[in-house]
Write a structure and sequence with these properties.
This protein is mostly beta strands and 105 residues long. It has no helices and eight strands. It has a single domain, classed as Sandwich (Jelly Rolls), CATH 2.60.120. A four-stranded antiparallel sheet has the order 1-8-3-6, with no helix packed on it. The chain has a four-stranded antiparallel sheet with strand order 2-7-4-5, with no helix packed on it. It is globular, with a radius of gyration of 16 Å.
Length: 105
């Protein structure tokens, strides 16, 4: 039997965890805002937490979020696998705020 140091869930199953390696913020406003730099090399997962309801879209430096993209509630914390995307764009639903972004690897 191999002993693991990973945390365990309610069913006593090992849970893979990731370490935060970078953090950033993006202003949520009435026009699309895009992360100013690419995600750090090696990052596969990002955690997002907006202070205001917003829409997000992943892509490259030309990414743009619209009202047809993924919706996040204010205060919601979500994680996404970024695949080959290098940036995230954000657009407010009805009021301005901040999108907090944590890169995990």
């Amino acid at each position: 039997m191999v002993q693991t140091l990973l945390p365990r869930d309610a069913h006593n199953q090992a849970v893979q965890t990731l370490a935060p390696i970078a953090a950033d913020t993006i202003a949520i406003g009435a026009t699309t805002a895009v992360k100013s730099a690419d995600f750090t090399a090696g990052v596969k997962i990002v955690e997002l937490r907006p202070t205001a309801a917003c829409f997000i879209a992943f892509g490259d430096g030309a990414a743009a979020a619209t009202a047809n993209d993924f919706f996040l509630h204010a205060g919601e914390r979500v994680t996404y696998h970024i695949r080959t995307n290098t940036r995230v764009a954000v657009l407010q639903e009805s009021s301005a705020g901040t999108l907090y972004l944590t890169e995990l690897a």
